[in-house]
Amino acid sequence: MGLMKVFSGSEILALALQQRIEAIGVDTVLKNNIQSARLGGFGNSGLAVELFVQETEFSKVNPVIEEFRMSI
Q1: Rounded distance, CA 46 to CA 33, Å?
Q2: Nearest to 68 by CA among 25, 9, 2
Q3: What is the chain's alpha carbon radius of gyration, rounded to the nearest angstrom?
Q4: Sheet harboring 3-9: ordered strands across?
Q5: Which of 15, 46, 60, 62 has its CA 20 to 30 A from that of 40?
Q6: pLDDT tens across 3-48, in order?
Q7: Is 9 helix (H, G, I), strand (E, B) or coil?
Q8: pTM exceeds 0.70, yes or no
Q9: pLDDT value at position 7?
Q10: pLDDT value at residue 63
């Protein structure tokens, strides 16, 4: 089993979704491409932040993700 990407976008939205997912007891992995690009000395032209959960947890977090998407 691996990680599944559940969000790509701005850091503010990614952090808001991360809080909602972790509030139901599911761990997340946040990949911040802005920091990586800045530390590497080059810009980033893609989506800045990606949020991942374990594939096995997706059915548990999907309602949270859908509710979040409807609220933004």
Answers
A1: 8
A2: 9
A3: 13
A4: 3-9, 49-54, 29-32
A5: 15
A6: 999 999 988 999 999 999 999 999 999 998 765 555 555 555 555 8
A7: strand
A8: yes
A9: 95
A10: 98
Assigned token pair, 9: 């976008």
* Tokens encoding 30: 């946040």
Q: Which pLDDT band holds residue 50 (cuts at 50, 70, 90)?
A: very high
Query: How many Cα atoms occupy the beta-carbon half-sphere of 5 within 13 Å?
Result: 8
CA dihedral over 8, 47, 34, 69, signed as positive or negative: negative
Name the DSSP letter for residue 60.
H
33 vs 18: CA distance, rounded Å = 16
Report pLDDT for 43: 56
State the Cα–Cα distance between residues 66 and 38, nearest whole angstrom.
31
Using an 8 Å Cβ cutoff, are 21 and 66 in contact? no
